[in-house]
Specification:
The structure is a single chain. With 190 residues, the protein is mainly alpha-helical. It has a domain of 126 residues: Winged helix-like DNA-binding domain superfamily/Winged helix DNA-binding domain (Arc Repressor Mutant, subunit A), CATH 1.10.10.10. 63% of the residues lie in helices and 5% in strands. Strands 1-3-2 form a three-stranded antiparallel beta sheet. The longest helix has 30 residues. It starts with a helix and ends in a 17-residue tail after the last helix. The model has no long low-confidence stretch (mean pLDDT 87).
């Protein structure tokens, strides 16, 4: 069994446990699952920081940051121009954060604002030619970087990871974190 195949098998078993399906030899040990979930969350946080830093390094000379690149991506991937609030919702960010980015990007010539026929005050954000060129260059760099990073790994492993992360995102969106807060008064000391 190759290392890549071994990783795929281990990963598939982990996903089966996390998704609540039965596989041979896997007990539904809640403590183990909780530790695995916490470990994954920590790795996602670390990866997020690393991705943002790497993205900044990848596109910095284009006048972009990872955050600006995300905004240009949201614009590029939308079939219609969007207002700031919709871009923010699609990206999982606050409207205020995206508004600051759009204001800065507008001043630097990456985006422009156009009237919104459906809402007088919520202008539509549109990429300029400079913004489109920077986005295309960023994507070309990202593709070359992705090829180097993923060399020797399987598409199935990434697809399984994506499936697990989407499922957990769906569960997080539908959860009530406040329900997990212990409402019992805590006593301190003796």
């Amino acid at each position: 069994m190759t290392m890549d195949c071994h990783i795929d098998v281990m990963f598939q078993r982990s996903i089966s446990v996390a998704m609540g399906t039965k596989t041979e030899g896997n007990a539904r040990d809640q403590e183990r699952l909780r530790r695995a979930w916490t470990g994954l969350v920590i790795e996602v946080f670390r990866m997020n920081g690393d991705l943002l830093a790497a993205g900044d390094a990848l596109v910095g000379d284009l006048g972009l940051t990872s955050a600006r690149w995300q905004v240009l991506g949201a614009i590029a991937l939308s079939p219609v121009p969007l207002p700031v609030a919709h871009i923010a919702r699609n990206m999982g960010l606050t409207r205020q954060a995206v508004q600051r980015l759009v204001d800065d990007m507008r001043a630097d010539g990456f985006v422009r604002l156009e009237p919104n026929p459906h809402h007088r005050r919520a202008m539509l954000v549109v990429a300029t030619e400079r913004g489109n060129a920077a986005y295309r260059a960023a994507i070309a760099r990202q593709e070359r970087w992705a090829d180097a990073l993923t060399s020797g790994l399987s598409a199935e492993a990434f697809e399984a990871a994506g499936t697990l992360l989407r499922e957990m995102q769906r569960r997080i969106e539908g959860s009530d974190p406040a329900a997990a807060i212990d409402t019992q008064p805590q006593t301190q000391g003796a």
